[in-house]
Structure formats: C-alpha cells, structure tokens
Amino acid sequence: MAPLLEVKDLCLDYGAVRALNSVSLSVEEDEIVAVLGANGAGKTSLLKAVSGLIHPTEGSIQFRGEDLSHIQAFSLAGRGIAHVPEGRRVFSTLSVQENLMLGKYGVRSSRKKADLDSLEERVYSLFPILKDRRRQLAGTLSGGEQQMLAIGRALVSSPVLLLLDEPSLGLAPIIVQEIFSLIKKIHEEEKIAILLVEQNARKALKAASRAYILELGKIVVSGDSADLAQDPRVQAAYLGTKAC
Amino acid sequence: MSTFFEQLVNGLTVGSFYALVALGYSMVYGVMKLINFAHGDLFALGAYLGYSLLTGATGKITASMGLWGGIGFTALLVALSVALAGVLVERIAYRPVYPSGRLSLVVSALGMAIFIQNAIMAIWGSRPQAFPASVVPSLRFSFFGIPVTLLQVTILGISFALMLIIWLIVEKSNFGAAVRASALDRETAILLGIDVRKVIFFVFALGPGLGGVAGLMNGLYYRAISFNMGWNYGLKAFTATILGGIGNIPGAMLGGLILGVVESLLAGYVSGAWKDVFVFILLIAILIFRPTGLLGEKTAEKV
C-alpha cells in the first residue's frame, strides 16, 4: 500500500535561493516521523509545502494517493491534514473557544461537523486547562497553554496526519516534556500519523519511529530513530556529547 | 442645558454617519492592512446614487412602496450598488498591486479616490446638488423634553440597526470569527481552511455598502451634496477609526459616535467655523498619545 504521505524529489526556491533540494520522504499511517535540522535547514518550508502555503518548484506531494502540489491551501484543511505552525500562532484576541471552533472551519459537510462537536469535548478532556480557560482570550494563555491550544485547534478537524512545527520552541523543559507526552498520547489514542519538525533532536528521536535529517535543504541522513540516536555523526551534530 | 441635549442629538446623528463610514475603513484595514482612501468617495457615490433615485424616479419609488418602503428600497439599492463599486475597487486598484507592497497600495488607493471623485463630477456636474425637500416629513417632536425630528429618529434607527447587525455578524458568528482570524494572521487562517478571498470580498462589499447608506442618509439630512464631499467625510471618519482603534469593529462605532458628539458640542459652545480644526487636533493628539485608540489594546500579546 502507498504511504499516507509521500514527498518525492521536492525542490523549492525563494527567488534565487534554493530552500529545498530534491527532498523525498514518506509517512505511514501508524507512524511518528521526525525531521531534524538546524535553523534555516528548510524544515518549516517543507511543512508549508505539504500544506500548500507555498508551491514547490519541482517534485510531487501525494497524500492518500492524491497529488497535492497544486491544491489551494485553504481547501486542504478538512481533507485530513492539520498543520500546527511554528510559534503556535493562536489568534490572540479571540477566545480559546473561538480558536478551537475555527479549527473546524475547513470541514465543509454539515453531517461531519456534528461529529466534530464530540471531538471538541475530546480536546477539552486531553487539555483540561483549556476548558477552564475557554472564555479567556488566547493571548493571555502561557506559552505551553498556547501550544496545547494550537494542537487542540488542529485536532478538532479530525485529521489523519498532523504536521507539527517545532512544538517545543521557547517552552520550559518541564512543559516540553508534557507536550511530548501529549503528542505520543494523541498518536496512540487517536490513531493520527504525525510529521514532526524539531530542533530538539533528543526529544524528537525518542518520540518518532523514523527520522530524517535536513541540512541546507537536503536530506543527509535518514533511518530508524533508535539507529540515528546511536549514529556518531548525529550524536556530534545534533545531540551534543552530554545528555541534557 | 437645552443646547446641550440638542447638540447631543445632532452629534449622535452626524456621529452615526462617521461610525458607518469608519466601520468600512476599519474592516478593510483589519484584513488588508490597507487604508482604503477611496472609501470616503464611495460614501459620496452613495449620496449621489440616492439623490438620483429619489429625484429621477421622484415619487415613483416612495409613491408605489409608501414612504418607509420607498426609503428602505432606496437604501437597499444604494447599499448594493456601492458594495459592487467597493468590490470593483478591490479588483481593479488593489488586488493587482497587492504583491508589490504597501506603498504601491497607498498610491493606488489615492488614485482610486481621485478617479471616483472625478467620475462623480463628470456624471453629476461640479455644482452642488440638493436632495428633494422633506422626503421624510419634517415632523418635530419632543423626547423627554429634547426636541428631535422624525428624520433624526429615522437616521439613528437605521444606523443603530445596521451597527447591531454588523456587531452580531463580526463578533458572534462563525464567519465573523473567521474574518477576525484572517485579520490577525492570514497564513494561519488559511491553514484552518478559511478562504481569505471570501473574507476580502466580504469586507470590500460590506464596508462600502454601509458607507453608501451613510452617504444617502447624509444627503437626506443636509440635503446639499457635492462631488468632493467624500474627502472631508473620509478624513473625519478616518479620525473616528483611529480614535476607536483601527481594525477594531466596536471601536469604529464608538469612535464615530464620540467624534460626532464632540464636534457638535464644539460647534454649539465654541464656534462652528472651528470644529474641523478641533477634530484634526484631536486626530494628531490621539496619534501622539494613544496611537492604538480607545479600544485598540484588547490583550497583552505573548510571544
């Protein structure tokens, strides 16, 4: 069977600058896949290409066998891909509840919308703090709570593939820990495949079954997370010598 | 004291024109980060279309549909036509230059303002025109001792009903939440499946539609209209927008009403000739001391 998401020979240019150079990767239905790399390696561009915010110069992106590379980004939401952007990007002057409600906006059919109401309850049970604060403006939440809201907002559209862009960015270590255990929980309990982009290589390799390492727009290493965690090159470049 | 209440009612009437026009500035700015300089001239277009409908088809509309049905129908036709003009302005003057940045947009907006103003002059002439007298019967009555005219009650009724509807759409409906979300962060809105083109269509239809109705009511109220009236009203309504907090919908309504009342009280107690001076001193003062306006800062942003 074809993988859930298959990216083939993807090239992406910003003017004269090549951001992605012949990137190929795949995500199966029951996987968490991590993409690691330094700032500017092209991780965010890769996710934006998958969700249609930017159109690739060359290559193809197939989701459930359908070519996505020329589909309008807004019509992609509600088809099973949900993207949690870098920096959380919650709507700060909208309430928590309004933010969650907008997560369902892309789902067109009304019958399916009714099913999604139960998902909203599910999100509140995954993140009880959001329920307590549902009337509060999203901008008044702490960083960790905003990250939970951003993930919750993606979950209410009932995705089969979740794109997570740097969920640990700017959060305290204890909150990062919490976010990662929530990511695993979501993956296991909701049966959602996850494509995770991270700079925190240690945490990401622990959560993911497979990983790709992106350097200057090219995939330089890929394989099982456990093997990569043992790879001396990966250890030197991304994990540091000491555990943190 | 009676001067105070009279000027208060006058101020609310004028303020409701400012508020309706300010809504258009604010909604467009919120979503596009663009000051639609052509907006004041769309207001003038509304006044002229209303003038033509009420004089050209004199009596016909109000005779066949009754006074209130006729005014309602005229307002609806004006709103729809000016809304269409607003959408065309976006298509012709803004969308093509959008990728080339804000400075090009501003220049394009100013060009569009001059174009509409000159189009009005070419069609209706450069001399001021006058609305037919007493379309709304000039009844005067007393409301808790404050003298008000039937026309003022009509204008305030229509304006407040429109503002209530807009407030309900923008603040309470799902689509309204999508509009506010698009204004805050367009890219994330797209990720959630919001078709931002529809949102842009909505603000460029609704804003000018409201402005057109304000233009019609302004014509009914003052009777005299001129082809360049949009410039002054546009600036006043823009001041109201800044006063309330640009991009903020309730702020635009509040800013318009406050500006109208302040202006009328100044005219009543100080001097009518100086009121514009005060209004623009107020604009400069807000920009210096509180550039976010009255309702502009709703929350502390966390990064």
Overall description:
- The complex is a heterodimer of chains A (244) and B (303).
- The mean pLDDT of chain A is 90.
- Chain A is α/β, with parallel strands linked by helices and 244 residues long.
- In chain A, helix 3 (96-103) packs parallel to helix 6 (143-155).
- In chain A, the strands form 2 sheets. In chain A, strands 6-7-8-3-9-10 form a 6-stranded mixed sheet, with helices on both faces. In chain A, strands 2-1-4-5 form a 4-stranded antiparallel sheet, covered by helices on one side.
- Chain A contains 10 helices and 10 strands.
- Chain A has a single domain (5-239), classed as Rossmann fold.
- Chain A has helices spanning 43-50, 73-76, 96-103, 110-126, 128-132, 143-155, 173-190, 201-207, 225-230, 232-239, and strands at residues 5-14, 17-27, 32-36, 58-63, 66-67, 81-84, 161-165, 193-198, 210-215, 218-224.
- Chain B has 303 residues and is mainly alpha-helical.
- Chain B has one domain (2-125, 139-289): ABC transporter involved in vitamin B12 uptake, BtuC, CATH 1.10.3470.
- In chain B, a hairpin with a 2-residue loop joins strand 2 and strand 3.
- In chain B, helix 1 crosses helix 6 (174-184).
- Chain B is globular and about 55 Å long.
- Residues 298-303 of chain B have low confidence and may be disordered.
- The chains are: A alpha/beta (244), B mainly alpha (303).
Strand order, largest beta sheet of chain B: 1-4
- Number of structurally distinct domains of chain A: 1
The CATH architecture term of chain B is Orthogonal Bundle
Tell how many strands the DSSP assignment of chain B holds.
Answer: 4
Q: How would you write the strand order of the largest sheet of chain A?
A: 6-7-8-3-9-10
Secondary-structure content class of chain A: alpha/beta
Enumerate how many helices of chain A there are, as a single number. Answer: 10
- Report on the biggest sheet of chain A: 6 strands, mixed
